[in-house]
Amino acid sequence: MVVFYHRSTEPEAYSTGRNKARLTLRIESGAAKRVFVAFADRYDENGSGYEEMMHGGNDGTWDYFDVYVVQPTGRLKYVFYVELLSESVWFGENGVHQEQAMVDSFQLAYLTERDNYEVPDWVKTAIAYEIFPDRFARSHPQKAPPGCQSWNSAPTPTTLLGGTLIGIHRYLPYLADLGVTLIYLTPIFRSPSNHKYDTSDYFDIDPQFGSKADLRNLVREAHKLGMRVILDAVFNHCGDKFAHFQEVVQAGKGSPYWNWFFIRGDKVNLDEPNFETFANGIASMPKLNVAHDQVERYLLDVATYWIRECDIDGWRLDVANEVDHVFWRKFRAAVKETKPDALIIGEVWHDSLPWLRGDQFDGVMNYIFRSVVLQHFVRKTLPVQEFAQAITRLLHQYPQPANAAMFNLLGSHDTARVLTEAGGKVERVIEALVFQFTYPGIPMVYYGDEVGMTGSTDPDCRKGMEWNKKRQNKKIKDIVRRLATLKASLPALAIGELKFIEANEKLLLYQRTSEDETCAVNVVMNRDGQPYALSPHALIHFATSSETWQSGRVPRNGVAIWQDC
User: Fold this and answer.
1) Which end of the chain is more exposed for a tag (fewer CB within 10 A), N or C?
2) Nearest to 499 by CA among 483, 478, 522
């Protein structure tokens, strides 16, 4: 018995317009030759549409078949017709049968615009850049603020280097030249730490970084250069210096803020924490009770305040998976009402589908992507066929709009740097960058990775930005700049889906193709001893070998991006 899988909900079925839907059917690997979908108005006894579904890849367990269908009335019912190797069958909501009349239809009862998963249109060509503000740039490069260490000192958990918002402002032209269109700042609100994930005042910029005026100026000038700015929201927990928590510490159960937190007993014990915290027993980070009406209202005010006050372009949400979905739905409504094209990115390191149905986040920090890409390109522990299968699975794990809004990263302030992961092998980093920039979604560069900075996990990955050009890796920086240009200029890289053409020990070849049949973008990574010959009409956009530019042949270990238009 061949195994099928489909449910009429995300990511297998969802509305993409007033009368349009995307459908995906999973079938046991290798069992099907062709797949079709028959669909109609749910009140119509006769079928009105019949479309062949395209093979969207294989993940080792399933073959995926995808299609977009248009049902003019918006009332959609559908069944699948599958040509198996030895017979043909119909598949509907109640199972498999050789006669269509014997299977019940799946249904998307009414395709409404309010149910559409909509992400900001500008994310399609966005290039993100993460900045840890204390480590990027000082207001005055040669002048260390009081209490700060030298810029090139080895970081510790308490190191201060003196980076500021004015320092970031000074380097906006650098970021624009690199191709950055979206700046993500880790927390900048008042806090006693260097990382600022222990907020003491959500309505004030930490003086270490500057002022509200500095943030306004930074955002204003970034906008002039075609860049947006998003901030880090730490709503799962606050810092122990947060005024409301301090009030609870002093007054105990008599405090009006007692129920803002999860406290066991009659008073707070900071030495042996008797309250919920970020992670386990971190007394400096008490967990907030966001289900409390006052806490909810307070945090939603924070979210909209900074959009109104400084015109920021969205939020990255720290520890997002430990805050309830009810709050995040209200958060999305408040943010989108204030700024409809604001971006919302959650920090979730695992399967994020519960947050990616169009009612909470636009995308997440795509750590699953990072894991798969590093295993294959950087650490060389994942064979190419298994890599292609893992990527196919990931691409079908979420609705397409979510894929378009993902922060696809190779490293962050919470991980080792990519060049360190690669053991210093630049060629491995370049292959990972090519895949990152040609994959659906938002490529996110962690500050300094573009110039070859190194470092193991926190705090070593948080060194001061390398501004000395003699110590920068010019090759990596040039590659990032070239790839960012392609991402912004080739329509198929903005809206196209990814499909593997070949994935074996000799060749990794994939395409980005779009529904409107915009000229496909091809990417090849040649692992064979023989050169890979491009077509005579190939328009080469990127190559790592001069031989490719001169003869149209991609040598062993060569990489090329081209179109046959």
Assistant:
1) N
2) 522
Per the DSSP assignment, residues forming a β-bridge with 314 are: 343
Tokens describing residue 123 = 């994310």
- Residue from 325, 357, 299 nearest 119 by CA: 357
Residue 123 lies in a domain: no
CB atoms within 10 A of CB 9: 11
Query: At 68, which amino acid appears?
Result: Y
Place of tokens 């990152």: 436
Q: Find the angle CA(491)-CA(496)-CA(500) to the nearest 5 degrees.
A: 130
Q: Which residues are catalytic?
A: 318, 347
Does residue 85 sit in the same domain as residue 22? yes
List the Cα angle 238/241/247 in 5-degree steps.
100
Q: What is the CATH number of the domain that holds 274?
A: 3.90.400.10
For residues 397 and 341, membership in a common domain is answered with: yes
How many degrees, rounded to 5, is the angle at CA 444 between CA 441 and CA 449? Answer: 150
Instruction: Give the model confidence (pLDDT) of 309-333 as tens digits.
Output: 999 999 999 999 999 999 999 999 9
CA 101 from chain centre, in angstroms, equals 43
First to last CA, the chain: 43
pLDDT at 9 over 90: yes
Q: Which domain holds residue 259?
A: 237-289
- 3-state class of 364 per DSSP? strand
Instruction: Name the nearest CA neighbour of 190 among 145, 154, 239, 148.
Output: 239
Phi, psi of 63 (to 5 degrees): -95, 135
Segment 542-555, tens digit of pLDDT = 999 999 999 999 99
Looking at residue 557, which CATH number applies to its domain? 2.60.40
Separation CA 495–CA 441 (nearest Å):
9
What b/e string do you get for 101-132 counting C-beta neighbours within 10 Å, with b at 16 or more?
eebebbebeebeeeebbbbbeebbbbbbbbbb
Report yes or no on 120 lying in a domain: no
Average pLDDT over residues 331-351: 98
297 pLDDT more than 80: yes
Q: Let me know whether 448 and 547 are in one domain.
A: no
Q: Which amino acid is at 132?
A: F
Residues near 176 by Cβ (< 8 Å), separated by ≥ 6? Answer: 225, 226, 227
Angle between helices 212-224 and 293-310 (to 10 degrees): 60
The answer on 374 and 306 residing in a single domain is yes
